Amino acid sequence: MNKKGIVFDLDGTLWDASAQVVPAWNIALNRHSEIDKQITIDEMRSFMGKTIDVIAQIMLPEIDRKKAVKVLKECCNEEQTYLRKHGGILYYKLEDTLKLLVQQYSLYIVSNCQDGYVQAFLDYHKLWIYFSDIEMSGRTGKSKG
Fold it and tell me: What's a Pfam family this protein contains (predicted)?
């Protein structure tokens, strides 16, 4: 008999990494003298769940789209490096909940993030054992929706 599955999003469902990734993004943004922008935690939270292309349109509308996406990919690379060392904030009793759920369900993560972000979450918090598979728009080129 096949197990039923549960598909989770990551940001806002399993953890909140907004405050942790803001400094990483600002480091990457500071490398570009033509960009006079520092991101805030509230802005970061508003971007969660959106693809890089959509964030580029919102965050850097005055910059050529291709260049804006390139800059945001640098932000994401900086973010992943940081998250692999420091993690984010797991929601209350997340691991206890996953331990219970995985006994009856196959668990999955699907996210509109860049490739490597879900892996950073799973690596730092050592949660790979609970998930059967993961997918993200940064790997497929498609939105989760």
Answer: HAD_2
